[in-house]
Amino acid sequence: MKIYTKNSISPKLPDDGLTYRNLPEVALVGRPNVGKSTLFNRLLRKRRAITDPTPGVTRDPVSQDTLLAGKPVRLIDTGGFKLVKEADDAGREMDALVVQKTLLTLEHAALIVLMLEAGDLTPEDEEFIELLRPWQNRLLVAVNKTEGGRREEYAWNLLARGFDKVFMISAEHGDHVGELEAAIVARLDFSAVVVDNDATRPIRIAILGRPNTGKSTLSNRLTASAASIVSDVPGTTRDVVEGTFLYNRRNFVILDTAGIRRKAKVTENIEYYSVNRAIKAIDDADIVFLLIDAQEGLADQDKKIAALACDKGRGVIMALNKWDTMPTVKNTFNAMVDRMRFLFGQMEYAPILPLSAKDGTGADKLLDMAIRMYGQLTKRVETGALNQALARWLEEYPPPVGPSTRFKIRYITQVSANPVKFVFFASRPQAINEPYLAYLRNRIRKDLGFTHIPVSIEVRSSRKARD
């Protein structure tokens, strides 16, 4: 399996619809709870990163392509730099991983925005400032929470630290953020940015599943990076972590999401927002990789995730992860697939594949299926061919005849792709029952090449006189 990282590929920016490559990266750094995620959301003009008074909410670097002062950049929100470590071993390990990810981000960032809070510097601020000395020529300093000019005298004292200039802002209220935005753009080199008007759109994949099913491990393997923190601690991933890669000459964007538990088990605000972000990732994706622990099998929560993706018209591939831990008994996989089909017959069309995200076994087949599925999602069938097919379907299984059940289907048209939707025009739409609609949906899948994706159909009243 050949997977090439190509982190410079960007999806379409929301502001102008163009496709960009080789964007300069701007990293927001600082200690926990200084306002990095709030500024990140402010610059994006939407709530992308989770913000909460709890220190250390952001763990993985969260990136988003956007326009700053009209220029395309990749903005990165990083985890907080903590000097005071957690008391327990798991907490200390997580803090170390967060700092490690932050430092890796600094290595390739074109510009670093150090965020401090108005007031006396903390020991963590002091240590982080020293740590950033090697990147002094790529550094901007923003002092947050100075709304209304409060505590500005502390900000000016920072000039004694060797900084040429400091920007006093309020990320929450937006004070002077525009000035910071302009300063960021002025420090960046955009000569390498490539703008494509008709470039092949990347296939956007959201990795979803319950906690600890291997989502971050798969994301890191596909992107050949360590962008997502991998830990045995459930709930490690909180924000949606985005990465890009090239496989089989196709560009992919991968969205690594937080584990989704049953609503009754979600008790903390942070996890609540994490789950909401994960569900929202379905809207931003074309295809969902639903990771299922092969040892645990299909759970009710997996069914709910798959059904939600189906309702939104997204392709779903169910990946039985950790397959390398299963006993090597003949027909084990086929037996598990049969059981899943029995338990979840509504998703019979969705492919089920074995996978080991840890060693990469099965990842090539997963991506090959994603490319095939994307072709079905974006396929359009001409109206003439559709109605020729409709005539065959009606002849092979004529509509029922009777005073209350009689109807005529006059024609069909495809109204959208990705999600795929067809509209039938009939004389009496209310008379068409669900079994007949299921028959039409299955014939669309079988005869028109939509074998692995959800197909939405709607029946409308035709304009001709009703029979």
Provide a short characterization of the protein structure:
Helix content is 31%, strand content 22%.
Number of beta strands? 18
Task: Describe the global form.
Answer: elongated
- State the end-to-end CA separation: 58 Å
Kindly report the spatial arrangement of strands forming the biggest sheet.
Answer: 1-11-12-10-13-14-15
In helices, the fraction of residues equals: 25-40%
Count up the helices. Answer: 12
Rg over C-alpha atoms, rounded to the nearest angstrom:
26 Å
Q: How can the largest sheet be summarized?
A: 7 strands, mixed
Q: Could you name the CATH topology of the largest domain?
A: Rossmann fold
For the record, the CATH class of the largest domain is: Alpha Beta
Q: How would you state the average pLDDT, rounded?
A: 80
**What share of residues are in beta strands?**
15-25%
Count of discrete structural domains = 3
Tell me the CATH architecture of the largest domain. Answer: 3-Layer(aba) Sandwich
Which class of secondary structure composition applies to the elements? alpha/beta
Q: Going by CATH, what is the homologous superfamily of the largest domain?
A: P-loop containing nucleotide triphosphate hydrolases
Secondary-structure element order, as H and E?
EEEHEEHEHEHEHEEHEEHEHEHEHHEEHE
Low-pLDDT segments, ≥5 res: 1-12, 48-58, 227-238, 261-273
